[in-house]
Design goal:
- This protein is of the alpha+beta class.
- The protein is globular.
- The strands form 4 sheets. A 7-stranded mixed sheet has the order 1-2-3-13-5-15-4, covered by helices on one side.
- The protein starts with a strand and ends with a strand.
- The chain is 25% helix and 25% strand.
- The protein has a single domain, classed as Double-stranded beta-helix, CATH 3.60.130.
- Bound molecules: N-oxalylglycine (OGA) and manganese (II) ion (MN).
- Manganese (II) ion binds next to loops.
Length: 287
Amino acid sequence: MQTLTLSPLHPVFAAEVQGIDLRQPTDADLAAKIEAAMDEFAVLVFRDQVLDESQQMAFTRALGPVDMGLLKVLQRRSRFKEAGMIDISNVDLESQILERDDPRLITMLANQLWHSDSSFKQPSAKYSLLLACILPEQGGETEFADMRAAYDALPDEVRGELEGLAAEHSAFHSRIQLGDRQYTPEDLAKYPTVAWPIVRTHPGSRRKTLFIGAHATHIVGWPVPEGRLLLAELLEHATQSRFVYRHTWRPGDLVIWDNRAVLHRGRRYDLSRRRELRRSTVEDAQV
Ligand code: OGA
Ligand code: MN
């Protein structure tokens, strides 16, 4: 039996976990404890977890079925042997730092917009697990915003207005917002848009959450500009500093976040510096 020791990192969410070695197999008891901690804190930070690919995937699978994100569509070759491993790095297949104007950097840059992983597909992502390998000396932090606290802080009238509204989410919208046009109609067709209610009840905590972010293109049934403005206003509200935890990475940090409860974004850094992280993702099998 492994015991989790939790130290809160922020007044409303996020905690550091001590007492766990993730290289060891995760049994059902530990997985259940982690899920309970995730339901409460929504972001968990594990320090000094130097995992190899197989150890990270084994831990990921212990938490649920693996989400493949955009890997299916982009069909890019990868530096990794594990099929579900996503390269969150500014380097090419030979581990050379990408040129500033390389189109492959767009994914990393789009990660700097507030988003929920895989919100553009059904099922979307439950947990993301991001492991830091090599970091720039400055910048490149990751921020998380608590969408439960953000919902709780909305005025009653706004909550009323949001009831029954859904937003459409598209796989390429965050990239398109940054001026990227590299997708063929076939690429776009592989990921049809998906509509999600803007307010959802988290199945684990039963708390209401705002489900928005850079993949949301518009509000279903509303004129697009009006819907985009409402989404922008909600995002501005939801990402006030009182709802945000900023994680400053150290090599060997593994951070898990609940995409149903938080938004996240990377922060700017000097792209000529190496930044290498590795993400695996658990699918939201509940919906
Ligand atoms: C991700 C992501 C942000 C970052 O891995 O899903 O959005 O800081 N990362 O790299
Ligand atoms: Mn992400």
